[in-house]
Design goal:
By secondary structure, the protein is of the alpha/beta class. 38% of the residues lie in helices and 11% in strands. It has 14 helices and 13 strands. Helix 1 runs antiparallel to helix 12, helix 2 packs antiparallel against helix 14 and helix 5 packs across helix 11. The longest helix is centred in the C-terminal third of the chain and has 21 residues. The radius of gyration is 23 Å and the shape is globular. Bound molecules: pyridoxal-5'-phosphate. The site of pyridoxal-5'-phosphate has 12 residues, from helix 6 and helix 7.
Length: 445
């Protein structure tokens, strides 16, 4: 654990004076202007009828109470209108995805024309790499985190293999096209200066930089603005997987000049299991119809889509990357949640999030236990709401004990408990209770 002085600095930086008493937590909740948002969500119950302590909004967000009505509206229109619902439903299905565009764009700091809701995350990463990973000559490498989420690793490796096979036919050499960013020996997360160095050193060989906005394991948030700037300077395209950043960080994708991004919506964006995902394509690419892309009829010019011609004419902007007509029930669920985000505002959510997570960090620092260590950066600018707690000797019994006591966190192999206090529905009291339970379980061991 970090020394106390570190936490005092952190507290001063955020002008907060944390205390470890329960009354402090209760008072903090009273003063929290966003506290009523918790009422908008179903909190799962324990067997004893009490709310669970839910800290896995970084994995699956809770259900907004309004989701049911949003989906029922579409069920009703389908029941009474059949196919006519495409035009005559209360919320016509034909343009339904457009109802979400602006709200989603606001969540990630994009222009509406740069954003679309479609497919699932890994599918979208592939579709975007078709357009934005264009290896040529010696500029053929992709840069990712060494401990990127496995699906990203598989996607990137398979894209590389796909291009290498094509090149093999043209008899070029197939050297390793992957650069993995690893923390320094003995350190838990990457230093921005090291990322910059690798980008600069390998500049003329990098075709694509594809990092997570927030690393799923360590909870480290990357300096996306800086990485984009350096990546562009070296001639690379820069994209981000925002699975753990969308709805968590205050993002400014347009201003940061990011080329593209993709994210799922079932984590912080509460769209439900397997919910429909989001995509960002910077407007400077919106009319670049020379970019290769896989096409489908939903990406075709809306004015002529139903003329059923055989020549694909892409819509300008992110919508031009769509393939299929989208799943309306999924859109309806996400729409319910995005309305809540619109009401709360990402800036305010992020402000509360920083306080909540700093508070969690403070309480953990008060626990004198050498069995646990926080591996998430301690600078609030370098993390979202998640703290990753490494358990010595990969002893999973601690995780099992807190689970038995009503905590829903998650265990990520080999040795980490991830805990994410989410500002929309977690309270300071939740965080305080969690710390008490963790302390208790550590003592009893
Ligand atoms: C960082 C990251 N990338 C990719 C995925 C895979 O998402 P999907 O199954 O929606 O494609 C996840 C899922 O948790 C993730 O956390």
């Amino acid at each position: 654990m970090k020394c106390k002085a570190h936490y005092y600095n952190l507290m001063q930086n955020h002008s907060l004076n944390f205390e470890s008493s329960e009354s402090f937590a209760l008072e903090s909740d009273k003063q929290d202007a966003l506290r009523h948002f918790r009422e908008k969500f179903y909190i799962p119950k324990q067997a004893n009828g009490e709310d669970v302590l839910y800290f896995t909004g970084n994995s699956l967000g809770l259900q907004p109470k309004t989701v049911r009505a949003f989906i029922e509206q579409e069920l009703k229109d389908w029941e009474t209108l059949g196919v006519e619902g495409h035009f005559h439903a209360k919320n016509p299905w034909m343009p339904y995805h457009e109802f979400l565009t602006e709200k989603m764009a606001n969540v990630v700091g994009a222009k509406p024309s740069e954003t679309v809701v479609m497919n699932s995350l890994t599918v979208n990463l592939h579709l975007l790499m078709v357009s934005f990973y264009r290896p040529h000559g010696k500029r053929n490498k992709i840069v990712i985190e060494k401990n990127a989420f496995p699906s990203d690793q598989y996607a990137v490796q398979s894209q590389i293999r796909f291009h290498q096979r094509q090149n093999a036919k043209r008899k070029t050499q197939n050297e390793d096209w992957l650069i993995e960013l690893a923390p320094r020996e003995g350190e838990n997360y990457l230093r921005t200066q090291d990322i910059e160095k690798i980008l600069e050193e390998n500049g003329d060989e990098i075709a694509l930089v594809l990092l997570g906005g927030v690393n799923y394991y360590t909870g480290q948030a990357f300096d996306m603005r800086r990485i984009t700037e350096i990546g562009h300077k070296t001639g690379a395209v820069v994209g981000f997987d925002l699975a753990h950043a969308a709805g968590n960080l205050f993002l400014q994708l347009h201003d940061w000049n990011v080329d593209f991004a993709a994210w799922c919506s079932y984590k912080y964006l509460n769209s439900g299991p397997g919910g429909i995902a989001g995509v960002f394509v910077h407007e400077r690419h919106s009319e670049n119809f020379e970019l290769p892309r896989f096409a489908g009829w939903w990406g075709h010019d809306k004015k002529t889509r139903f003329l059923m011609g055989d020549e694909f004419v892409p819509i300008k902007g992110a919508e031009g990357w769509q393939l299929s007509n989208p799943p309306i029930f999924q859109l309806a669920a996400l729409r319910a949640s995005l309305d809540i985000f619109e009401e709360a505002g990402m800036k305010k959510l992020r402000e509360k999030s920083v306080k909540l997570t700093n508070y969690l960090e403070f309480l953990l620092s008060e626990i004198q236990a050498d069995r646990i260590e926080i591996i998430t950066p301690n600078n609030p600018n370098e993390r979202g709401c998640q703290l990753s707690i490494r358990v010595k000797n990969a002893d999973k019994s601690l995780f099992k004990s807190i689970t038995t006591r009503g905590v829903i966190a998650d265990w990520r192999e080999p040795d980490v408990i991830r805990v994410a206090p989410v500002p929309l529905y977690n309270s300071f009291a939740d965080v305080w209770k969690f710390a008490e339970i963790l302390k208790d379980c550590l003592i009893k061991k």
